[in-house]
Design goal:
Number of strands: 8
Strand order of the largest sheet: 4-3-5-6-7-8
Order of helices and strands: HHHHHHHEEHHHEEHEEHEE
Helix content: 25-40%
Number of helices: 12
Radius of gyration: 22 Å
Largest sheet: 6 strands, mixed
Shape: globular
């Protein structure tokens, strides 16, 4: 999978071509029959089709990043980043066995890599929601212009007690700390030996802040349906909502009693761009959502002109947001 950069049109074309190949007698004759390779790949093809599900050419939807395609095809839905080093090892081997057979039953079943242990690989399995299951994460804008969960009408509220107190006490300082945490996360990691004790501690606190009580969102490709849920690394991530299918946007979110107070277009599974983020903000404001006080983070190295107040995230500009 490495080395491919496919548009949605290319992806759909590739699926069609692979489908023809897998169903051909030449492919069947070329494979070791005792492994039922043709049947395994046909089933994998059906799973791989989910990667482009919900998308259409020109709709601006985001496909899952290619390093996570394995996650969709895997019937166990093990975390894509964990599967990647095992897939690379398989690619470099001389085995004739299909990847997942090799990994779980064949020559690679006892492989335990130092970067990602077998325990970690098998322990982190993402939940992929069914159509019925994702309904509990679907939201809507109520008549009060606040965000509610569709299934019970409750106001969306993502804050824990500590965050609530911090926001109620000093909203401006809370914004600054959020910007700093994201900026430090995206900055190049320096050599710890060259850092002071205070700098090391600052990065630890920033990481702790980022990982505590993190909520994420995705939208449908038309950006009309917004889904929100807590992130649990290796269990529930952006790909969980739509089962690895195409999304309109993805990122991190914070909501205070129905009011969106933070949005950031950051997702390793989908890698949204700034244009897609602005399109989401336009959609929300068109529905009457007030984003004037919300922290709208732009983590990209480019500025964009729009009607929303986007905060550029970088270490150099931190002083501007105190």
């Amino acid at each position: 999978m490495a080395g491919f950069a496919l548009s949605k049109g290319d992806w759909h074309t590739l699926l069609q071509q692979v489908n023809i190949l897998l169903r051909s007698s030449q492919f069947e004759e070329a494979q070791p029959k005792e492994l039922s390779v043709r049947g395994k790949w046909l089933r994998c093809l059906g799973s791989a089709g989910a990667i482009g599900r919900g998308s259409a050419e020109g709709d601006g939807g985001l496909l899952l990043q290619k390093e996570h395609w394995l996650e969709v095809v895997d019937i166990k839905h093990r975390y894509g980043s964990n599967l990647t080093p095992y897939h690379e090892h398989w690619m470099q081997s001389s085995t004739a066995q299909p990847f997942f057979f090799w990994l779980d039953h064949g020559e690679g079943k006892d492989l335990d890599l130092p970067d990602v242990s077998r325990k970690e690989l098998d322990g982190q399995r993402l939940r992929y929601c069914t159509k019925q299951e994702r309904k509990q994460y679907a939201t809507e804008i109520g008549g009060d212009k606040l965000l509610h969960f569709q299934h019970n009408g409750a106001l969306v509220h993502t804050l824990n007690a500590e965050e609530q107190q911090e926001i109620d006490t000093n909203f401006g300082q809370w914004k600054h700390e959020e910007i700093k945490a994201v900026a430090l996360a995206r900055a190049p990691k320096p050599d710890k030996s060259s850092m002071s004790e205070a700098e090391v501690q600052e990065r630890k606190e920033a990481k702790k802040r980022r990982n505590a009580n993190k909520w994420i969102y995705v939208t449908s490709t038309d950006k009309k349906q917004l889904y929100i849920a807590p992130k649990v690394k290796g269990e529930f991530q952006h790909s969980s909502f739509l089962s690895g299918g195409s999304v309109g946007s993805a990122g991190a979110v914070m909501v205070n009693q129905g009011r969106i107070i933070k949005l950031a277009p950051m997702s390793g599974h989908y890698r949204p761009n700034i244009e897609q983020f602005v399109a989401l903000l336009d959609q929300l404001t068109a529905q009457g959502v007030d984003l004037t006080r919300a922290l709208l983070l732009n983590p990209f190295p480019v500025e964009v002109e729009c009607k929303h107040h986007l905060v550029q995230v970088d270490l150099e500009s931190l002083d501007d947001h105190k």
